[in-house]
Amino acid sequence: MYAPGDVRVVDREDPRIIETTDAVIRLTATCICGSDLWPYRGAEPIDADRHLLMGHEYVGVVEEVGADVTSIRVGDFVVGSFVISDNTCEICRAGYQSKCVHADFVHGTVGTQSERARIPYADGTLVATPGMPDDDLIPSLLAASDVLGTGWFGAVAAEAGPGKTVAVVGDGAVGLLGVLAARELGAERIIAMSRHASRQALARGFGATDIVTERGDEGVARIKELTDGLGAHSVIEAVGTQESMMQAIGSTRPGGHLGYVGVSHDVQLPGDELFFSEIHLHGGPAPVRRFLPDLIDRIWRREIDPGRVFDLELPLTDAADGYKAMDQRRAIKVLLRP
Amino acid sequence: MYAPGDVRVVDREDPRIIETTDAVIRLTATCICGSDLWPYRGAEPIDADRHLLMGHEYVGVVEEVGADVTSIRVGDFVVGSFVISDNTCEICRAGYQSKCVHADFVHGTVGTQSERARIPYADGTLVATPGMPDDDLIPSLLAASDVLGTGWFGAVAAEAGPGKTVAVVGDGAVGLLGVLAARELGAERIIAMSRHASRQALARGFGATDIVTERGDEGVARIKELTDGLGAHSVIEAVGTQESMMQAIGSTRPGGHLGYVGVSHDVQLPGDELFFSEIHLHGGPAPVRRFLPDLIDRIWRREIDPGRVFDLELPLTDAADGYKAMDQRRAIKVLLRP
Questions:
Q1: Which of A265, A275, A282 is nearest residue B284 as measured by Cβ atoms?
Q2: Sorting pLDDT into bands at 50, 70 and 90, what band is A45?
Q3: Which end of chain B is more exposed for a tag (fewer CB within 10 A), N or C?
Q4: For the segment B113-158, what is each residue's pLDDT rounded down to a tens digit?
Q5: Half-sphere exposure of A37 (CA within 13 A, CB side)
Q6: How many C-beta atoms surround the C-beta of residue A25 within 10 A?
Q7: What's the average model confidence in pLDDT over A147-165?
Q8: Which residues of A make CB contacts under 8 Å with B?
Q9: Least confident piece of the model among A45-54, A80-89, A277-286, B283-292
Q10: What is the mean pLDDT of residues B268-286?
Q11: Where are the beta strands (DSSP E) in B130-222?
Q12: Distance between CA A85 and CA A99 in Å, rounded?
């Protein structure tokens, strides 16, 4: 990305092993993330000298490994997290690989909207599938790399589970997969907040039992109406704006759990409202690596189909068109084939 | 309280049973809370027509009960929460009595810096002790009413427990009893942040293993030094200012838990810092009622001595002097005897 709105597919230096813990993979598929729209829309700075290396969701085949890589082999089909992690430090062992002491974002450093990519800490970042996947599994495995893993973390952070009413703020791919995650985690009732018919339909397909079209204070009031005036036990926030956060806080009952995974932009949380809301708040960049083995397993056994969030597929060379389609909300999520 | 700095002991209408769920108690002891200093210092408005009825921490003997009160009897010695609760609604049953559907703050409505008080929802708000307490137990039982219960909630919200390093921001009575709670909950290491020798000594007496005198960014850096650069697993925030909250957030490791119980004043939490900190945040007005049976039991068996936070005792008639002493930090906490 050269500037807001300016995405180009250009030749870059070919990736190669630098550290002994690296792997080089050939991308089978990659995609455009909702978070890629922040710089595309000018809401995040782009360094004019360096451009911004785009892409952080990826599946592919390992072509080379460094001397110290032990669990990943050449020829493996792998899914990787959008954050590099060693998966051995104390923070990783506690399940927070996205805050690993060696954490680095793939976005801006590796850039997986590409044909090949060098992945640092391959053992700690990548997970191999049981074998070469059927082609129809590729979108779902790709989704695990971020958008499913992030929705899943939102649902886990919101403590979605049996007997719980879960509300989901945001009907982008992450919110929709938050619905799927809440269903998989056993939630009793799942309220998707969406005003777009196609997204409502997908939400219902993923397990939403109720749809709320209102937003802001009206959305909060509607959630309260649906929950005996108390609010939802669990709320997943998947947008990252002031309005969406306040809507999510207001929709959570006292003692309930808000899992927020929308990348926060220009948000200021009023301390007193948060204090007197008495909710649990947890979120941040999803530790996808924690969930990857389980998510791959569920996909491999065809229990879940998160790949349905991809409603447009383009060759990598047409990436710019993909950005446009997502920016204009013509597509929920765009899969790119190198 | 007639105005900031203006506390008067005056005659009020004698409390009597109004609702069938009420009890009227004769106060054995009451006290001044750190939160009472907010209006005293002009940081909270005081309605000039109504004055502000002060006092929300209380122990005493039941003198009258309404027709529907079943678990509390005339003659019982009782400890009450600083928030009225029915203890039967869905929110109460989930352990959030401070957000009961019938919740009301004792502060400003009942005002227990008095000789007698009408306590609504007596069954849900009050807990009787096993018998009439020895006089030396009174301060500790009184502490359970708020300051211990609040410190305890902070430690529970911060998930203090075995193997955990706990940092405590704030060396007021709540922070000090957060230290005690963390010890009781089995924390391995407890770092008290304090620059006052007498409070440091009390913190050590309650179980602090380390003292950090630095504040703000320097305080955060010191906590990181003491925790392999990672931050504490659990942080209890017991102040309620912007600086203390940011200090607490910065001191918590990714995936760690911040329990915040200092009443929030003019705090704005930056969404992006909170997001990327990846911590758990939980707090608010403590659901003391949840903890009261356990706390009374620990005090009754003389396992804990939270009453040590009271370092000044005055007759109720001298309440104004008590406020002055706490405002000037000459006293940590003032016990008042009606």
A1: A275
A2: confident
A3: C
A4: 999 999 999 999 999 999 999 999 999 999 999 999 999 999 999 9
A5: 20
A6: 27
A7: 98
A8: 90-91, 94-96, 98-99, 101, 228-230, 240, 242, 245, 253-255, 260, 263-272, 274-285, 287
A9: A45-54
A10: 97
A11: 165-169, 189-193, 210-212
A12: 8
Q: Which long-range contacts (CB under 8 A, 24 or more apart) does B315-320 make?
A: B316/B9, B316/B30, B316/B113, B316/B114, B316/B115, B317/B9, B319/B7, B319/B9, B319/B32, B319/B54, B319/B113, B320/B7, B320/B8, B320/B9
- CA-nearest residue to A99 within chain B is B254
Query: What's the pLDDT band for A46 if we cut at 50, 70, 90?
Result: confident
How far is B74 from chain A, CA to nearest CA, in Å?
33
Residues of chain B in Cβ contact (below 8 Å) with chain A: 90-91, 94-96, 98-99, 101, 228-230, 240, 242, 245, 253-255, 260, 263-272, 274-285, 287
pLDDT tens-digit series, residues A268-304: 999 999 999 999 999 999 999 999 999 999 999 999 9
Pairing mode, strands B77-80 and B126-128: antiparallel
Residue B138 parent element (H or E): helix B138-144
Q: Which domains does chain A have, with CATH numbers?
A: 23-146+287-337 (3.90.180.10), 148-283 (3.40.50.720)
Residue of A nearest to B266 (CA): A271
| Residue B205: partners with Cβ closer than 8 Å, 6 or more residues away | B308
- Write out chain A residues lying below 8 Å of B228, CB-based: 90
Per cent of chain A over pLDDT 90 is 96
Tokens of A177: 């997969």
Facing residue for A230 by CB, picked from B90, B278, B280 = B90
- Measured between beta carbons, the chain B residues lying within 8 angstroms of A247 are none
Q: How confident is the model at residue B178 (pLDDT cuts 50, 70, 90)?
A: very high
Residue type (1 letter), A264: S
How many angstroms separate the CA of residue A287 from the nearest CA in chain B? Answer: 10
Residue B275 has its nearest CB partner, among A91, A101, A263, at A263
Mean pLDDT for all residues in chain B: 97
Could you tell me if B96 and A280 are in contact, meaning their C-beta atoms sit under 8 angstroms apart?
Answer: no
pLDDT band at B49 (very low <50, low <70, confident <90, very high): confident
**B50-72 pLDDT tens trace:** 789 999 999 999 999 999 999 99
CB A124 within 8 A of CB A88: yes
Q: Residue B240: its chain A contacts at CB < 8 A?
A: 271, 275
CB contact under 8 A, B275 and A269: no
Overall average pLDDT of the B165-185 stretch: 97
Give me the sheet containing A165-169, strands edge to edge: A210-212, A189-193, A165-169, A232-237, A252-260, A280-283, B280-283, B252-260, B232-237, B165-169, B189-193, B210-212
Amino acid at A330: R
For residue A267, which residues of chain B lie inside 8 Å, CB to CB?
Answer: 270-272, 275
The answer to whether the CB atoms of B254 and A283 lie below 8 A apart is no
Decide if pLDDT at A16 tops 90. yes
Nearest CA-CA distance, residue B94 and chain A, Å:
7
**For residues B212 and B191, is the Cβ–Cβ distance under 8 A?**
yes
Q: With CB atoms and an 8 Å threshold, state whether A282 touches B280.
A: yes
What separation in angstroms does the CA of A139 have from each of A197, A202, A334, B252? 22, 16, 10, 37
